[in-house]
Amino acid sequence: MDLTFWLTYIILWGVVILQSVIIFNYMKFTNNFIHKITKLESVTFQKNIEKGSKAPPFVVKDQFKKNFKIEPNQSEEKSLIFISESCPTCKRIINSITPSTQFDKTNTIFISNGDLEAKYKTILIENNVRFTINNDLFQKYNVYNSPLLIKITPTGLIQNSTIIDSIQDLTNLHSSYKVI
């Protein structure tokens, strides 16, 4: 074999080793940086609302101009379904709602972080499903993913918080939970 082959071979291996050292040092630096950031007292990371914690109280008006309240001593279990105006799963769930869909429509409210398209509003109104547009509740309940179902006990505690993927999830979860 000629000399150029061996020189090329040695140079390529040198480049591979150099790249490996650079990547290793970059990963080490990044890991160290992230570790230092998480240790800073001024930086806090938001957590989802925890099961068993007190639900933040609020009063909102739905599209029918009726109040929907969450308070410490309420008469019944309530459900909050957080949806996003741009979420395809949320839109699919709303499209699946029919008059025969079984869930407690009086104690459940859909909360959107933005204005819904007219056809989705129409579906909710025609099926007597309560909804409101309120971005502040997303922050109050630390909602970062949607569609999210939060069940609240009559004593005002979070019973469960779960992502739902379909109308069947909503009806199954709604019927299977018992008050704790």
TrEMBL record:
Keywords: Membrane, Transmembrane, Transmembrane helix
Bilayer-crossing regions: 6-27
Listed InterPro entries: Thioredoxin-like_sf
Matching SUPFAM superfamilies: Thioredoxin-like
Protein name: Uncharacterized protein
Taxonomic source organism: Rossellomorea vietnamensis
